[in-house]
Amino acid sequence: MGLFTKDIKTMDDLLLHGLQDIYYAEQQITKALPKMIDTATNRDLSTSLKNHLEETKKQIERLENVFAKLGKQPSGTQCPAIDGLIKEADETAGEIEDKSVLDAAIVANAQAVEHYEICRYGTLIAWAESLGHDEIVRFLTTNLNEEHAANTKLNTVALRKGVNTKASNAA
């Protein structure tokens, strides 16, 4: 299935395309997170990102279970949205000299990715329920809940662990 082609004819095709999209996205995230972890200077931020990297690997395994339940081979389809979010994060990181400001940018960029994933998983759950694919809803819901939790942890790091305050006080 390609971007803007007529390969998607049914709701099942649309669900499969969405699953391929998020599968690709999760794989790209596992490639991008190590760089964010290495760049972050706030210990809580680094820990949060490391933990989410491990969660993301488990999310990929759950998605592989989803494909198996549907009788499909796990595969991804290029996702311009996640590619763009990751590219923007890389470009932003390259433009920031102050490490405390960079930490605030890492939080913001990571949250943009989380929000994308939350949107995708919510939609996939709704479609799966609508199509009667109850056997995959549990896997998708677990991933969605982890994305919500990751976003909440990033909020905590930014607001309560001092990332935003430290960045605000940068010269």
Characterize the structure shown.
This protein has 171 residues and is mainly alpha-helical. The chain has a single domain, classed as Up-down Bundle (Ferritin). The chain is 80% helix and 0% strand. The chain has helices at 11-39, 43-69, 80-95, 99-130, 134-159, 163-168. The protein is elongated.
Key features?
171 residues, single chain, mainly alpha, elongated, Ferritin
Short characterization:
This protein is mainly α and 171 residues long. The chain contains 6 helices and no strands. It has one domain (11-168): Ferritin (Up-down Bundle).
The share of residues in helices is over 70%
- Broad shape: elongated
Number of strands: 0
Please report which band the strand proportion falls in: under 5%, 5-15%, 15-25%, 25-35%, 35-45% or over 45%: under 5%
Q: Helix segment count?
A: 6
Helical/strand content category: mainly alpha
Average pLDDT rating: 92
Largest beta-sheet details: none
CATH architecture: Up-down Bundle
